[in-house]
Amino acid sequence: MTERLAVRADLFDFPEDPGWQVEAPAAVRYLPDHWLLVEDGRIAGTRPGTEAPGPGWRCIDHRGRLLLPGFIDTHVHAPQLDVIASYGTELLEWLNTYTFPAECKYADPAEAERGSALFLDALLASGTTAAAVFPTVHKVSAEALFAAAAQRHMRVLAGKVLMDRHAPDGLRDDVAQAERDCVDLIERWHGRGRVAYAVTPRFAATSTREQLAMAGRLCAAYPDVYMQTHVAENRSEVRWMAELFPEARSHLDIYVRHGLMTPRSLFAHGIWLDDTDRAVLREAGASIAFCPSSNMFIGSGLFDWGRTEGQGVAVHLASDVGGGTSLSMLRTIADGYKVLALQGQKLTAWKALYTATHGAARHLRLSHEIGHLSPGTLADFVVWDWAQGPVARRRIEVARDLHERVFAWMTLGDERNVVSTWVAGQERYRRPE
Ligand SMILES: [Zn+2]
């Protein structure tokens, strides 16, 4: 029997890239007071709020609330919830002082299982329904994350982190064992339900040339897996890369030399790239995850979105928790606005929300499945309050047009605005009364 669900709210999504303009009528689809119709977990259509669907439909009335596709966080670390908001360090010191000790715990299957469940539930409670995730170097951490994602039917990209040097005991693998683990995980998990494998070298400094080459071989052997890593995040890190790999032209070039530049490659940060690097990314069809909260919090630098996209490189948005200080993509976007403002650029509400939904889905080659509210896609969506608290309520109330209203929602909102989160038509989070 077909399962029929209808949710009434202000429906909002982005069929096209709005570009950088506030005037982008074709790209912005806003249906105030409409029903979103869902059949067997997939979006079936919409209809005006006054035309309730008949018997046989489970109807949920969220009139006066906003409904958007679930956000897609394209770079985040599951085990780093334990070190979010840690004081006083830049990247390399931050890794050694906080992150590596926290990641060591994930050798324990029970800890990996507990952490993965907490992490995915926290994503859902923040309004994020899909993510590209780093677990730890331990195979069991990837297993636990995949299992937790499958249980929730969430779209998750992840892979065992590869690191065979410059990390403490208990947090290093070796080339042969890592290869066996990756192959086993790919064979067992990639494409199973909504889980996809991503070959995941942490960054070039924590892998030997041999390990990076092995990672490249995996990408070649399994061309539909993803590849995720960090690039050009911080100036000391970039200098260190130049010492470790004197033969490479740049940090990015290290990945190119080892076969890690594919159309399914996601590079976090990319702050300290040059025009040649960007041309390489564009030609490969690879993309950059912009992590504004993290970039400011650990003092990495200001990512130039305008220049990057101007040179044809795809950009998406990411929390990068625990370097970032919130899993909320609204907070991430608000930080992104500030990073661009410091460089004389303006991030419209449309561009930001498109990028965190449909834009990310396109770059991940998943727009047939997620990112918008078009019929046939899976019903991953979030119901939001327009405002929480008197200040936001007043600001929303006096907004003169839709962009102003949505911009205020986006800038003042966070996980407290999330009313409920749905994955493939199932409610996976509901705000406590
Ligand atoms: Zn990261």
Automatic annotation (TrEMBL):
Name the Gene3D superfamilies for this protein. Metal-dependent hydrolases, Urease, subunit C, domain 1
The answer, when asked if Zinc is one of the entry's keywords, is yes
Its biological purpose is as follows:
Catalyzes the hydrolytic deamination of guanine, producing xanthine and ammonia.
- Which cofactors are required for activity? Zn(2+)
According to UniProt, the name of this protein is Guanine deaminase
- Looking at the UniProt record for this protein, which Gene Ontology cellular component terms does it annotate, in alphabetical order? cytosol
Q: Which residues form the signal peptide?
A: none
Q: Which UniProt keywords apply?
A: Hydrolase, Metal-binding, Zinc
Q: What catalytic activity is recorded?
A: guanine + H2O + H(+) = xanthine + NH4(+)
Name the Enzyme Commission number(s) assigned to this protein: 3.5.4.3
In which pathway is this protein known to take part? Purine metabolism; guanine degradation; xanthine from guanine: step 1/1
Q: Which NCBIfam families match?
A: guan_deamin (TIGR02967), PRK09228.1 (NF006679)
Question: Single Gene Ontology BP term?
Answer: guanine catabolic process
Q: Which family does it belong to?
A: Belongs to the metallo-dependent hydrolases superfamily. ATZ/TRZ family.
Q: Name one GO molecular function term.
A: zinc ion binding
Q: What class of enzyme is it?
A: hydrolase
